[in-house]
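Lab notebook page, bench 4
Experiment: in silico fold of construct C2
Operator: M.H.
Input chain length: 61 residues
Purpose: comparison with the prior construct
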Amino acid sequence: MKILKTFDNAKLIIVELEVNMGDKKRSAPTLCASIDDKIIPLSSAHDGRPILMNLDNALQQ
C-alpha cells in the first residue's frame, strides 16, 4: 500500500444518520468525512463494514 494523496480540507465527524430499512426508519451515530460541505459516510448503513470513501456516496448538509 502507498499513500497517493492527503486531504487537508477533510475532517472526521460523527453524525446521526437516518436510513430506511424496509418500512421502518432507523438512526445511529455514524463516522463520516466532511469535505467541501459534503458528508461521506465511512461505514455502510446495512452491515457496518468499512467502505472506501467515495464522493458518489456523499450527502449534502
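Observations: The two ends are 32 Å apart (CA to CA). Residues 9 and 26 are 30 Å apart (CA to CA).
Next step: discuss at group meeting.
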